[in-house]
Here is the input.
Amino acid sequence: MGPEWEKKNLETQVYERLRHDVVCIRSLLGHLSGVKEFSLHWDENEVFHTELYTAFLDQLQKHRRSMTPAPWSAISKLSLKLPPTLLNQLPYLQLDQLHTFDFHFATGDLIQSEIHAFHEGLLVLLHNLKDVVRQLSFTSTAASQNFDMSWLFHHLSNPHSFYFHQLRSLSVSIPADGSQLSDPKLFTTFLERHIRTLEHIAIHTNDVLPRRSIGNTPNSDFIPIVLAGISKNFYPLRSFEVSYPFHGNLEALALFIVRSLRTLTSLSIQHRVFHLSEIRVLFHHLAYQGLAYITDLKLAMFDLDGALLTDLAVLFPGLSSLQIDYRHASHIGVGHIDLRASAYLVSVPTY
Here is the structure.
């Protein structure tokens, strides 16, 4: 009974425990027939067992021989972050009533050809959802070292394959240096194709930069490029959230807001910290187009004074909610002011 025997014995014990856990999971899930929301997220730092993930995914799949409906076919909200080797199961998911789909890319150090091959299953699933899904969210972080979301939008912008007829909300988050969106114009194309249905758009960035790029030149101004490329009015748009780059061109942002003013009621500009002079330049120009419809506003500012609040009150007469995150230009510290229905809550930084 040497090391080899001990290793084999341990593997047997792990297998038996895994099999027992899978039986328990299937038994438990079989009694949960009313599930409407489901989230399955893989911790990339941990070893995973395929059987455990499959036990959960089976609840969303038709029986491939009898074609009996999936136990959770009535699910309306799904969030997934899966090991790439399991993405080949996605085409078999039965999600006839799915309204919200949130997908986190987790490609690790896979090369691009491997990433594309593994994610073919995701493309099939998205194609199957194109007539029912109303909210889409895509997230990629620095852990996906060689991933490029332009590949996704290249396929989703194909006029012969994809059009999300019910799409109302789109959220995208990638690392802040922009290297995971090598061709911003493809994202612009996708947005413009859904310009008649989108009511909410969120474009966010991750603070942690990729450890290794895919050979694309980092471009922290990818968001201004995306917005500047839009040439049509976004009249259904009601809510816009953006992590705008610190030195990004404000003209692109202003033009996009102008194209949405007729219906826009909520505006959140994050990451970018404004000076009062920039706020005046940006919004005084927009005031002539009409800012009265905006009821919710979130900004980040250097310093906080009465002149700012006075300007905002004049520029946005319809505001019911104002949130200002502020940083003193001459001190280290972050503060916060939140105005809702004339009630003030101020948090002052301490030094």
In short: The chain is about 30% helix and 20% strand. Confidence is low (pLDDT under 50) at residues 329-334, 340-351.
